[in-house]
């Protein structure tokens, strides 16, 4: 247990939480300010630990309490060995969802605007003294910024910190009714929605959009989502690349356990397009404290021309308005499709820091170089996958 400027940090066992501790955690999750984070809920974190950190000794679940003893923050962390398997570079402490992430996950410390600065300072102080070579922490830009003093009050031989990266999400602020908001949408988005409905109606097929919530979101519905997601990934009729992120068994198993549980807690839903009795498109949504999060989707490629996913996202926005949400978060990675909805960004910055030995500092530098190479290769691969395909040799441009 450690204390920082009135905040006390205690490491607790993830598998031994009492009902009262879970309730306190869930209460804090429901009090998030601004663009809230669905990945900080107790259900999500505990399933993530179960899936990716089987050794309890490597789990560092921290509770941060204020001067009155009230829960002010939860930092779900874990220890990870990084670098080549045969020659590991070092050990780092990072948040759940960082380093071994599920699709579209946003790692973050759970706290509120009132306590954000103090809670992050307390978490930094605990992690920097936890024995790893270094630690990494994401901080939402509206909450705080990493302060040099957080690593300077030490007698260690190699204190350091650095800004590693920024992750931006497109967010749509909500106000008024759907009809009022629709009037302010970009022309191309309104045209896409109009065209989608018209084409479905003119096809002569019976169609409707439905939202599955609560017990309606069962394993069968989740498996149907996986099937359509894989079908969308296999479609080559577009220049954009959408890999099947659920081909990985661990990710699939985690969501099969987790999504129905979240749905019963009103923290997840599946929006489906049903045509002639068959589900042909689906959008997974997560919900937390005034924010609906647009997660991954699936689509039968036969319905590509109907702009089905855009239609489902419009339904999600309407439901968010009816729920009283303040924002819809379209997930990390701004692109043309997301920015048709909004050009407002929610930015989270990643920082690395340590106050260890010079040897630990050299390990961090080695890892940074390897990470930079891998990041470059990934960026090139993504850009190539989403670039227009060249015409076959010998074809004309007409």
Automatic annotation (TrEMBL):
Pfam family, one: Acetyltransf_6
Domain named BioF2-like acetyltransferase: residues: 188-335
InterPro entries: Acyl_CoA_acyltransferase (IPR016181), BioF2-like_GNAT_dom (IPR038740)
Keywords associated with the record: Transferase
SUPFAM superfamilies according to UniProt: Acyl-CoA N-acyltransferases (Nat)
Superkingdom of the source species: Bacteria
Signal peptide: none
Gene Ontology molecular-function annotations: transferase activity
Annotated protein name in UniProt: CelD/BcsL family acetyltransferase involved in cellulose biosynthesis
């Amino acid at each position: 247990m450690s204390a920082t400027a009135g905040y006390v940090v205690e490491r607790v066992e993830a598998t031994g939480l009492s009902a009262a501790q879970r309730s306190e955690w869930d209460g804090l999750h429901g009090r998030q300010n601004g663009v809230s984070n669905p990945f900080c809920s107790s259900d999500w974190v505990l399933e993530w630990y179960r899936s990716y950190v089987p050794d309890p000794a490597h789990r560092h679940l921290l509770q941060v309490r204020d001067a009155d003893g009230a829960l002010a923050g939860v930092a779900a962390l874990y220890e990870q060995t990084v670098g080549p398997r045969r020659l590991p570079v070092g050990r780092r402490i990072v948040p759940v969802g960082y380093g071994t992430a599920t699709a579209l996950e946003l790692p973050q410390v759970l706290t509120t605007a009132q306590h954000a600065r103090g809670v992050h300072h307390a978490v930094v102080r605990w992690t920097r003294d936890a024995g790893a070579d270094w630690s990494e922490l994401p901080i939402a830009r509206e909450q705080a910024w990493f302060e040099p003093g957080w690593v300077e009050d030490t007698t260690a031989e190699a204190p350091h910190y650095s800004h590693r990266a920024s992750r931006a999400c497109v967010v749509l602020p909500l106000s008024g009714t759907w009809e009022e908001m629709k009037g302010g949408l970009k022309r191309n988005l309104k045209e896409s929605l109009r065209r989608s409905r018209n084409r479905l109606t003119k096809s002569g097929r019976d169609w409707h959009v439905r939202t599955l919530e609560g017990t309606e979101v069962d394993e069968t519905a989740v498996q149907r989502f996986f099937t359509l997601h894989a079908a969308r990934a296999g479609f080559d009729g577009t220049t954009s690349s959408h890999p099947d992120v659920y081909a990985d068994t661990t990710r699939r198993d985690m969501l099969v356990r987790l999504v129905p549980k979240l749905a019963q807690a009103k923290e997840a839903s599946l929006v489906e397009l049903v045509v002639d009795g068959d589900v042909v498109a689906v959008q997974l949504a997560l919900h937390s404290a005034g924010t609906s999060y647009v997660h991954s989707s699936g689509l039968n490629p036969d319905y590509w021309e109907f702009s089905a996913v855009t239609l489902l996202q419009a339904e999600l926005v309407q439901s968010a308005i009816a729920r009283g949400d303040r924002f819809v978060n379209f997930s990390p990675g701004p692109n043309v499709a997301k920015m048709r909805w909004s050009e407002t960004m929610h930015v989270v910055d990643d920082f690395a820091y340590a106050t260890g030995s010079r040897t630990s500092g050299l390990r961090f530098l080695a890892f940074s170089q390897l990470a930079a190479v891998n990041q470059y290769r990934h960026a090139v691969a993504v850009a190539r996958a989403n670039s227009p395909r060249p015409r076959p040799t010998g074809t004309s441009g007409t």
